[in-house]
Amino acid sequence: MDKNIKKHNVYISEEEKTLNWEEIQTSFKKTFGNEIYNSWLQKISLIKEFNDYLILGVPTRFFRDWIVSRYLDKILEQVKSFKLSLNRIEFKIIEENKQNSEYIKIDQLNKVTEIKDSLLNYNRLNTNLNFDNFIEGKSNDIALSYSKKVCEHISRYNPLYICGGVGLGKTHLLNAIGLELQNENNVMYISAERFMYHFIKSIKKNDMVNFKDFFRKSSVFIIDDIQFISGKESLQEEFFHTFNSLIDKGSQIIISADRDPLKLDRVQERIKSRLAGGLVVSIDTPDVELKKKIVKKKIEEIQNQFKENINLNDEVINFIANESKTNIRELIGVLNRVVAFGRVHNKDLTINDCKNILKDIFNQIRVITVDKIQNVVSNYFNIGLSEMLSQRRSRPLARPRQVAMYLAKKLTTRSLPEIGRRFANRDHTTVIHAVKTITRLSEQDDEMKKNINQIKSILLEQ
């Protein structure tokens, strides 16, 4: 039987030990900073080391899910700097009873401020995001209409679920509902990320009773970006029970997300079912007419705020509205850039001026998602998307799959574990292998290089 070394959260057989885990933990602290290190990475222990991968211990499944979704790529990169042969990390949940007897106990966790005080600092409703300054158009009129109806008839549409892409006005509507109802109701407005933050802090404080009481006493519960709970099983469990408790007492629930509830990745089916059981309304990409209205309204606000005239003619406004093709945030950013240029140079701008000012924005790569890559690649190779994502390993399917993974890594900001999950929950090491394979083939095979370039062109044109 192997002797074991037990020291500073290190648990590894003597004959296999080559890494200095204390040294690696020190590098984590420098790379990630004190806050992340103390909250998450300090709790990781080294259980076993092999030539090409490590088994690390974490205290709970929630810790594992959070670390994998947020920090795994950087952790792997960091440990590879100590041992180049490492290409994979596995996590093992250290059971509580085992932790007490065989493993070093997790350090006592720091106390945090009361939930109520903390929420006052982070989750105030923004008075500027109200119904009066929300610009209505064909893309958002239904969402706006039902947001107002919720304010007139509490619990008639429950939950109200507003979905749409980034920067289209979901948070604006949630704020507006909260502002409208806060005088006569106990309104709780919070992002899913902050909800998770307080959940974790309450676990650390052993104070879940207060957490449950605090979040379940609201008469109007508004939660933004619910897709953030994806893959976080413990958090989903608590949200599920909070949701049910609020519904049972007749509270109004309003939720926003970046997609339809049934399309939420790695979210429990029972949660998706309850979210879809209310009223689901979507906000689409604004059309040109709405964008022109937004530009004119924003110009009016700037003029009132800074007491200055902004002279943009209709041609320039039409140009800005037509060329800004993603979301309202980009549109306002473009307008601010044009206004600033006109202010500095003290001139009335023409379309040609705007083209020069904005050429680096309008000529940049459009937003490319993993979904878009998968669809383009499957169409390019004339195979079904479901086939490409299946577990079959035949060459006609495996190679396009690897190409899609390669492009997902090169053209999006998604992490390796995230990409793996989007490809039928494959391991991140499969993505690494795909990237290495396609990189090598595109350097050696002219046909592969041609395919990659053509697919990139298609992605950039759409």
In short:
Helix content is 55%, strand content 11%.
By DSSP, the count of extended strands is 10
Shape, principal axes of CA atoms:
globular
Q: Can you summarize the main beta sheet? A: 5 strands, parallel
CATH architecture of the largest domain: 3-Layer(aba) Sandwich
CATH topology of the largest domain: Rossmann fold
Helix run count: 22
Helix-strand makeup class: alpha/beta
User: Low-confidence runs (pLDDT<50, min 5 residues)?
Assistant: 1-8, 10-17, 96-115
Approximate strand percentage:
5-15%
Please give the share of residues in helix. Answer: 40-55%
Mean pLDDT: 81
Span between N and C termini?
61 Å
CATH superfamily of the largest domain: P-loop containing nucleotide triphosphate hydrolases
Radius of gyration: 26 Å
Number of domains: 4
Please identify the top-level CATH class of the largest domain: Alpha Beta
Give me the side-by-side strand order of the main sheet.
Answer: 7-8-9-6-10
Report on the structure:
The protein is built from 22 helices and 10 strands. The strands form 3 sheets. The chain has a 5-stranded parallel β-sheet, with helices on both faces. It has 4 domains: 4-101, GMP Synthetase, Chain A, domain 3, CATH 3.30.300.180; 115-283, P-loop containing nucleotide triphosphate hydrolases (Rossmann fold, 3-Layer(aba) Sandwich); 288-362, Helicase, Ruva Protein, domain 3 (Orthogonal Bundle); 370-461, Chromosomal Replication Initiator Protein Dnaa, Chain: A (Orthogonal Bundle), CATH 1.10.1750. It is globular and about 70 Å long. It has helices at 21-32, 34-39, 61-70, 72-80, 96-101, 115-122, 141-152, 170-181, 192-205, 208-215, 233-248, 269-276, 288-306, 314-323, 328-345, 351-362, 370-380, 385-388, 395-411, 416-422, 428-444, 446-461, and strands at 4-7, 10-13, 45-49, 53-58, 88-93, 160-164, 187-191, 220-224, 252-257, 279-283. The chain is of the alpha/beta class.
